[in-house]
């Protein structure tokens, strides 16, 4: 089993873990939870051998195979099927040795290798890899497409598929749902439940944790606490533990106060001096109970919007998409009125984001009309809103542009509710993590008091505390809401209506959110049958298809090349920062005589963080530009599914 024994872990001068003892038995599926920055990813790095404990020990059984998703975005010209198969190194080694044995006409060796291939289920490896790809949203027939034909978000899915292909004894997954839609999340849940082996899963998705894990490991103030059961059971157990801890703390504080009063009253009296001294020593030896802490740093709410027009907008006989010949959505007749709370469900690529762009005024209908009420204020959150933040400006400067006349203290108080206080409110946004940038973008939207709030996957990179605060604020929001999210807990708490976006149509979903997995499974089953029954095209059709795909690739080559250049820069900067962090973990740096070197290393760390954030921002922007170009070009050339997806 995996064991942590009296373990202490520091990053620089900060203690992440101290005095930790933990055991994870084979076959356990453990959810690892805690606030952003508490040390979850550092624990994974420790298990992978990339960090060493500062005290104590970590023990893994000899021979355990550990698999994790690589931090670098994959690239190359190999097919995505071959890339996923590379996730099983033993399979690839046997295949290579088998080729050598056959080339040498060594029948005995080849026979032994075939037996080994059969023992590891190698003959079904390609079909297993294809099922992984299809489950994560790749279309049947995409298996032979090159890796570089996909954008960054889809290559992250491929990196996950490669990791899942590994026959690992211990699987480490760090936020695997961040780049997945709800359909892929549902598939991944089923896969992780059924797969053997031990799992450590970092996630901020409550429903996902409830469906997958049977134990919870919680980071809390430098300690690890183990709980049996899924996430909902953990919340109940933790609430009970905190209540007991607070009661014990109050009782101890009362006893300490009584002892201190006795000492203060009688230590000067000869007849009571010995008793007073005894109680004083007992106080010094007493192991103090810490007060229970469960406070969240987030506290915000949507202010009441101005009087809302009714209806907010009306869509009549509309067609949506990027090419009149191939609309994504057809025959839309929709009306949005104040206080409606709508969740959009449907397969990936069916048009959910396209519909939200229509509501936001960023996409005009190809046919029909979309009438917006005069004075309508729309708050729209999507990934490209995060990317449009001015990274050299502070959160305070972003907010001041929205309300130049507001007193600075009022703006600071507001930002404090999103955990931007002190220097974080006045410093540049460039070093912010993805979650911090998402929080800032949400803060700017909330401040504008919208009549209509449009949220497209708002929870990516947000931790559980921020997701909970967002859910509470949305419950109190009095305007209209349209939400796309793979976080079912957020959907369940905040939305009253479910709309299904599928097959070019938008219609009310006939069922509850809990019924959607069954609908999705039935649809996936029908799609598999249809694919199996589709006849193979003739040679001329395949040649024409290849010609169209070549035309698309040629048009997109400059963007792809820039994306590859940025990925190489990301890999280099990430490696440099990792090496620097390992150097900063050296305790000798924090002696007085090493202060000049420490300051130089900290300055270099700040430079690397800034450079990495800048390159990462451009990488995301180029990736999204590439995806939009693909949609437009493919609608013109008809070249298969997305050339970058």
Verbal overview:
The protein is α/β, with parallel strands linked by helices. It has 21 helices and 18 strands. The protein has a six-stranded mixed sheet with strand order 5-6-7-3-8-9, with helices on both faces. The chain has a six-stranded mixed sheet with strand order 14-15-16-12-17-18, with helices on both faces. Strands 2-1-4 form a three-stranded antiparallel sheet. It is globular and about 100 Å long. The two termini are 40 Å apart.
Key descriptive features of the protein:
645 residues, alpha/beta, six-stranded mixed β-sheet, 18 strands, globular
Average pLDDT reading: 83
Query: Within the largest sheet, what's the order of strands?
Result: 5-6-7-3-8-9
Largest sheet: 6 strands, mixed
Radius of gyration: 28 Å
Our estimate of the beta-strand percent is: 15-25%
The helix count comes to: 21
Assign a percent range to the helix content.
40-55%
Anisotropy-based shape: globular
Oligomeric state: single chain
C-alpha termini separation: 40 Å
Question: What ranges have pLDDT less than 50 throughout 5 or more consecutive residues?
Answer: 529-538, 635-645
Secondary structural class = alpha/beta
The tally of beta strands, per DSSP, is 18
Brief write-up:
The chain is built from 21 helices and 18 strands. By secondary structure, the chain is an alpha/beta fold.
